[in-house]
Every structure is written in structure tokens, then in C-alpha cells.
Specification:
Helix content is 74%, strand content 11%. It is mostly helical. The chain has one domain. Helix 1 packs across helix 4 and helix 4 packs parallel to helix 7.
Length: 200
């Protein structure tokens, strides 16, 4: 019956939601601790690719500020260094999401799958942070920084697209892909069970 098939999938989504509520609370409670490796990775990416104008970063809670040598002129005529910011929480909610997916399907292997999934998400969360900074540098402050960074129109478009990708897609897509990679056998069994019940 289709109703029974839908109940298998529906039951899975209910379990995900039931797990997600306490996991979000735990994630928020540990937000500063969880933000640290993302912040470190994002800074290393920026130092590696843009060492000629990136000087470091500062993490205040879960808000990371990129320190640069890019000079911009303030409306009052003062000249200062551009310091774009990014809220790590905006890109890191995939951590409780992937945990909920893993626990909703199979709680047996959580002790190694959850740490592995969390680590696998860090580079993608850091990339999203980097694109947020780059959008501020190349697009928002582009007229004042272009001669210092060397960014042209195509880089501006690329960074703007990367920002959209990092803000709208990566935080939700990567947890699902990582979950599918770690639980592919269990997911396949769930789909087969759903199909068999649909044929009854």
C-alpha cells in the first residue's frame, strides 16, 4: 500500500525532527567551541590564497573578523583597514542536521560516524565563511579595493555566486551528502523497505 510506504518515509522524517530539536539546543550551547575549528580553517584558506593582503583573523564568540591590509576611505575622510566579518553559525547548522540524520536511521555507529561527519563538514563551512569575506571585499568594497586586490569583474561575479552557494546550498546539501556516504547501506535498506511496503 502507498500509505504504508509513506509511513516508512514519514516515520524517518519524524525521527529526524525529534532528534533535531535537542541536537540544535546542544549545538547552540557548544557553539563557541564548535566555531573554533571552522574559524581556524577559514583563516588558513585565506592566508594560503590571499597572503598579500590577509594578515589574520579574530574570533569573538561565533563572529569572525578577517584582518586585512586593504585600505578604505571612510565617509568622514579617515582611512582605515577593511575588516569583513562573518557569523559562523549561519553556515554551521549542518552539524546538528547531519547528526539528526545519522541518529534517525541507525544509532549503533554514532560514536564514529558523528565525529567523522562533523570533521567532514568543517572545510565546507570554512569555505562558506571565506566567500562571505570575499563578497564583502570584492563586491561591497570593490570600488575601493580593486586596485589593491587585483580583482576584476569575473572574480566579483565568482565570489558573489560563491557567497550565494555557501549561504543557501552548502549548509544543507553537504550534511545530506555526508550522511548518504556514511549510511548508504542503511539508507538503501530503508528505501527497499519503503518500496516493498508500497507493493503490498
Amino acid at each position: 500500500m502507498r500509505l504504508r510506504s509513506a509511513s516508512v518515509v514519514g516515520g524517518f522524517f519524524v525521527r529526524v525532527l525529534l532528534w533535531l530539536v535537542p541536537l540544535l539546543a546542544a549545538w547552540y550551547g557548544a557553539r563557541e567551541w564548535l566555531a573554533a575549528p571552522v574559524a581556524w580553517t577559514a583563516e588558513q584558506f585565506m592566508r594560503g590564497f590571499f597572503s598579500y593582503w590577509v594578515t589574520g583573523s579574530e574570533l569573538d564568540g561565533t563572529t569572525q573578523t578577517l584582518l586585512t591590509a586593504l585600505e578604505i576611505r571612510q565617509p568622514d575622510g579617515r582611512v582605515g583597514d577593511l575588516a569583513p566579518t562573518a557569523s559562523i553559525l549561519s553556515y554551521a547548522y549542518g552539524t546538528p542536521f547531519v547528526a539528526a540524520l545519522l541518529l534517525a536511521v541507525d544509532v549503533k555507529g554514532w560514536w564514529w560516524k558523528l565525529p567523522l561527519a562533523t570533521l567532514a563538514l568543517i572545510p565546507f563551512q570554512a569555505i562558506s565563511v571565506c566567500f562571505t569575506w570575499l563578497m564583502q571585499v570584492a563586491v561591497l568594497a570593490g570600488p575601493q579595493t580593486a586596485h589593491q586586490t587585483g580583482f576584476g569583474a569575473w572574480q566579483q561575479n565568482f565570489f558573489a555566486a560563491g557567497y550565494q552557494l555557501g549561504f543557501l546550498l552548502l549548509p544543507t546539501l553537504m550534511p545530506v551528502l555526508i550522511w548518504l556516504a556514511l549510511d548508504r547501506r542503511v539508507v538503501a535498506a530503508l528505501l527497499i523497505e519503503s518500496a516493498l511496503e508500497g507493493d503490498d
